[in-house]
């Protein structure tokens, strides 16, 4: 996707009046439109579907190939889990976080490279070392911290000294990998590549499919997508992007559709996981690694198209940690990246898209 460094962005609004106290569900990428392409008339033994659960989410993979590749798909997912999952105590990244090893592998190297590149370009708003701060604010794996804020939201106070202490461990820009050895900013620095790993998993499965003669595929894991080739009608893959809904249940009301191929697509949102507190008001789970405070921006959801799903995954998270104007300005400077941002201003949803984002002309 070629783009001009000087271009602006497109802007339109959708009326949205019924905002409840529980907030908005982030826009998610839906495969509703894709499923319609795989009706009963699909050629037997050519178009195949693999689906199930992984990493506390679901996956759905559609591909055209000479044989079923379910075992190979599971092998790729297991490889990603054993390398990058911070929730698997046996994974390499968990052992690195505990200080049991400082040696990396190819997947850790790739996740680190994507993360540092996006962090640098996004002014530090994306940072996989932010876990100590996420824990402090009650959104991480520290169950006691989470119980503390949930059981006493009126009395929850986080001393600045605790935030400052956590910040000394945060900063991927102060970490590096040299000759297969990872060097941390602080001995207690930990890495959580969850905002890259699902996208990378999509990319790795896509690469496996291509090695096995599958040129046409769509790989979706928890809303992150890698696509290649064409659908069974020999057209680019058509993907639905959902409208944020004023409910605690996921809905699939279309905001727009995009037709894409040979790229990665990811959506991130910030309005389902939050705490209501007396001192800080409503705080979301996206924590600013620069200030150590919960992010307060006008962005409800961000959908990013990038050369790979891993890059799209990281950029979507980075956009969520920025204001809409700042995120759009940054994306407009990055070759090969396009985005669509949904913002909430008063009771109105506003949609901004980069100039080359492939919106279909179905706007309200």
How would you describe what is shown here?
The strands form 4 sheets. A 9-stranded antiparallel β-sheet has the order 1-16-15-14-11-8-7-4-3. The protein has a 3-stranded antiparallel β-sheet with strand order 2-9-10. It has a two-stranded antiparallel ribbon with strand order 5-6. It has helices at 32-35, 70-84, 92-97, 106-121, 131-136, 143-151, 160-167, 194-211, 309-320, 324-331, and strands at 9-15, 29-30, 47-54, 57-64, 176-178, 181-183, 216-221, 224-228, 237-242, 254-260, 263-269, 274-277, 281-284, 299-306, 338-345, 348-354. The chain has 364 residues and is an alpha+beta fold. α2 packs antiparallel against α8 (194-211) and α4 packs across α9 (309-320). The two termini are 26 Å apart. The longest helix has 18 residues, at 194-211. The chain is globular, with a radius of gyration of 20 Å.
Could you write a compact summary of the structure shown?
This protein has 364 residues and is an alpha+beta fold.
Kindly state the number of beta strands.
16
Question: Which structural class do the helices and strands define?
Answer: alpha+beta
Rounded average pLDDT: 85
Total number of helical segments?
10
Overall helicity: 25-40%
Contiguous runs where pLDDT drops below 50 for at least 5 residues:
1-28, 32-45
Which shape, going by the Cα principal axes? globular
Order of helices and strands: EEHEEHHHHHHEEHEEEEEEEEHHEE
Q: How would you characterize the largest beta sheet? A: 9 strands, antiparallel
Strand content: 25-35%
Radius of gyration: 20 Å
End-to-end distance: 26 Å
Strand order of the largest sheet: 1-16-15-14-11-8-7-4-3
